[in-house]
């Protein structure tokens, strides 16, 4: 059920300065070595859990029995910022170099750090989450000598990387920190051979998506808004006759309650065959895996209820994240529309229950992130009192990041109690023409900013739609996040099919929107990647906007006031390794144009029939996409959802 009214151009995300000597690019046959000093390093002690060692000139690593204590473990944390590594680099080897202050026969292992931390604020009590599997280990340390640990598996090119050094021995391994006067602190050495520039990758994406560790280490977070009414399956039935097919996609579904607007939905999750066991949990694990594969850091889960099936799905989503990857974080998002009748004490008890999970997102200082949807549905005073209840009754400090429908009207009142701000945002290019102003306003109040990024918005049951302009709105909202240097991004939404805002793989778009999104997500986190694979995306509606349905539909969607003007277009979005010629056939008519290397978009008039696009270079076809969705001037029901197809899916 719809539950609320929600109001790129190529860009490089600026990387912070690094301590590195980057030599000029050598010939393809000459290995190049680049060295990066640690930007932050510190150790934490289980025996002194609240103590900061941020000024120490050494790093201690020791097992749980360190110093004869029953709980004396010590871990070291190091962070590096890597820049200047070519996208086509070959034979890459990455080595973590540490200098020992003592001679020991101990073993030190290196693990990726999956949680956030800062050198100054980190203690044992506030230490970040650490990956379970080691990527490297080294045994035997000599005073004054450098130990080399191969961490190539955890470094994917330019980006920010953090590691934890752990030990199992009761004997302490002591290493030099970056504060040691001899400049013998941890360093990351990257050796590679520059590529010829002509290499291409296979697979569905137009670029090499950095690994999960590299994306998470960037410090910028991308969450997708999860809406519990629309899981992968509602009844575990075969897709041709499941609840979606019988009741949501047909005008007469659910006893005809959706007949006036031609059925509740126009799209749905991809169908799957019935499965055995706990299918609901299995489906949520699938969605977590899909999000991780697309570079997403976590879900902001919309909490509509604390008692119903929606509540069960919230709990299961957290279980799914724990099982798949605890580094995939769940931001708790109480929805003031759905929770209008829930009192403060009940909400506090419910959120505290969810907060026990290691997948619930917390800041480096241990505060639980809570980002209420339509936060202005309760007063700032109400939320302040609720936060006090969370701390006094449950010992949980909250970092509040309210998501407003009206940011400008409510930001000042909420500023004293908030860690950051967000708004739900618009879903058309006109509404997203000047997005940096909100980020600037949030920072002026000392808050982080979570930028909404969206594809489109069409709501049959509410009788309203936004004109997304094919992928123009998606590109415009990412431009706002990149130009505004947003701290976090919220994809609105992962799966709200009633408002047709979904990024998730679906019947109408497959993975196309997630694939396009992955490119801009990488731009935002690490800088725009090199295009290494020719890919073309085709987007269009299956009817002209003004076409009348043949079904006796009495409630039709109308353009939202202030939206970009409605249009009937087919768009080719190309991501090419080099310039190419594009032939576009729409309704039997073919047109051609020259597309440049990199990212470009071109639109053409929508016509009844089929649509396709072919990219050629030197008479060879390098990409071809044929839309499986036929355009008609006489639709059965009004359907304004933009379809999408990729040449490589």
Automatic annotation (TrEMBL):
Entry annotated with the keyword S-adenosyl-L-methionine: no
UniProt keyword annotations, A-Z: Secreted, Signal
Sequence ranges assigned to domain Carbohydrate-binding module family in this UniProt record: 33-191
Subcellular location: Secreted
Signal peptide from the UniProt entry: 1-28
NCBIfam families: DNRLRE_dom
Name the record gives this protein: DNRLRE domain-containing protein
